[in-house]
Amino acid sequence: MKEELEAFKETRMDEHKPQILAEKKKMNKPNVTSTDLHCAIEEIKESTLCKSTDMLSEKYGEIFTLHFGPKKMVVLAGYKIIKEALVTRADDFGERAITPVFKIFSNEHGVLFANGEIWKSMRRFMLSTLRDFGMGKKSVEARIQDELMPLIESFKSHNGKPFNNHLLINSAVSNVICSIIFGKRFEYDDPTFQKLIKMLDENAKLAGTPTVMLYNYYTFLASLLGLHKKLMQNIQDLKNFISQSSMTRRLDLDANYVTGYIDAYLLKQKQESTKAQTYFNEENLLTSVLDLFAAGTETTSTTIRWGILFMMKYPEIQKRVQEEIKRHIKPGQLPTVEDRKKMPYTDAVIHEIQRFGNILPMNVSHSTPTDVYFRGYLIPKGTEVIPFLTSVLYDKTQWKTPNEFNPNHFLDENGKFVRHDAFMPFSAGRRACAGESLAKMELFLFFTGLLQAFTFYPPPGVSREDLSVKPAIGFTLVPTPYMTCVKPNY
Ligand code: HEM
């Protein structure tokens, strides 16, 4: 089989003379290491350095090989090539790379870290169930609005004194997902809830640490050292919690009263139980619920935390958002999804928070399901591919001022909101974020609701210039921990 593949490569290479990326390319270009990539991401965020992604692509081109320890990966850099790969060539680039760390999360089940038929049926079910909840009796919009009130109260309770908003925002966002999954929210001081949030937060940090990365590339050695144990323990504990909750829901299951995702899954499982082949088993339930939990909490919460930091740093922008809120939403009334259409400036600011915040700089790795010929190269089957999202969100050919926080990127000369093709924080193509609609709704309702209620400003003695937008590097780019003060607006 191996010889056949080699022979195949040879014939195809003779025909088209492509280079085998990750093999021949290395000969005429310097090696790019993960450190180079991380440095570039850091420098991009330091606007004073005025560096941008073209630094990487100018040096190495739009497509290059990256060496992580013994492993070679292909990086795609820039809007055009990433769109071509993920959208036009979706069949060639639409698989997930299941690295050893991702395998700990999923054992190749669920949605986020799965492929093939399991991925297809789980993703289809996830999208349709989330859509149904959006239109159900208690819509997702109402669930988010319900969560906004306790969040505002908790912010108020600090009486203008500096506090770190991290845990509170995580709790609010996580509660939206909990309400969708389990059909109920938790009090912020509930010890079980606090433990869940802590484990999710810890895992997001751990997944990007060098020690856990080591597990990806030197798996045997890292297993001996037990570097991945905490991550594994957290995942097991989270799955145990989901399993217990689903056992309770099974007892109360009522097709006329579907409270959440778990109910919907259990009903589907019942329907499919007579089929010879079904993917609606226990392992897929636990993993897809964990996917929702993990992918749905950290991402949205981090984006809101970036948003508050940017509002403190750019008070003139905060003021313009608040003026627009005052014009369209009465005091005491909660924002609704409908309001967004009337509020182009706020919409543009939220889009810019996502662009500039760039929370998933390296996307989630894809891989090639077969040998792929692309832009004159042969990328062998099973190669990990990084569609480098930073290079799209900061692409100099697509944005007027890529290294500045500038809401005008999303406004025309008349102040109307304009879409931007290179706005790709949710990625693109068949693996694009499954929670995009929910995330957009949450970002608008939480951000607008918080800015309606409060003005955010830095603690005494800290100037806006002191506020750093340099991220802490990990799997997601999170703001360096900061303190904030709030002044109620009414
Ligand atoms: C601001 C918030 C969010 C951002 C920026 C974001 C971004 C992303 C990105 C970049 C991917 C990888 C896409 C790819 O592989 O090409 C992804 C995948 C995914 N996201 Fe999100 N996400 C967000 C919120 C959410 C929420 C709220 C949920 C769940 C309710 C969610 C669920 C998922 C799932 C299940 C996948 C895997 C899709 C698949 O592999 O088919 N995300 N997201």
Keywords:
490 residues; alpha/beta; six-stranded mixed sheet; three-stranded mixed sheet; 21 helices; binds protoporphyrin IX containing FE; iron; monooxygenase; Cyt_P450; oxidoreductase
Q: Could you write a compact summary of the structure shown?
A:
The chain is an alpha/beta fold and 490 residues long. The protein has helices at residues 2-16, 25-28, 34-45, 54-60, 79-88, 90-93, 100-106, 116-135, 140-156, 166-182, 191-206, 210-217, 219-225, 229-252, 261-272, 282-313, 315-328, 339-342, 344-357, 390-393, 436-453; strands at residues 19-20, 32-33, 63-68, 71-77, 95-96, 366-367, 372-374, 377-379, 384-388, 454-457, 471-472, 478-479, 485-488.
Description:
Helices cover 54% and strands 9% of the residues. The chain is α/β, with parallel strands linked by helices. The strands form four sheets. It has a six-stranded mixed beta sheet with strand order 2-3-4-9-6-5. It has a three-stranded mixed beta sheet with strand order 1-8-7, with no helix packed on it. A two-stranded antiparallel ribbon has the order 10-13. A hairpin with a 2-residue loop joins strand 7 and strand 8. Helix 9 (140-156) packs parallel to helix 21 (436-453). The model is unreliable at 1-18, 22-30 and 44-54 (pLDDT under 50). The site of protoporphyrin IX containing FE has 25 residues, from helix 16 and helix 21. Protoporphyrin IX containing FE binds at residues 96, 111-112, 123, 291-292, 295-296, 299-300, 303, 359-360, 363-364, 425-427, 431-435, 438-439. Its cofactor is heme. This is Cytochrome P450. Its main location: membrane. Keywords: Heme, Iron, Membrane, Metal-binding, Monooxygenase, Oxidoreductase. It comes from Ranitomeya imitator (mimic poison frog).
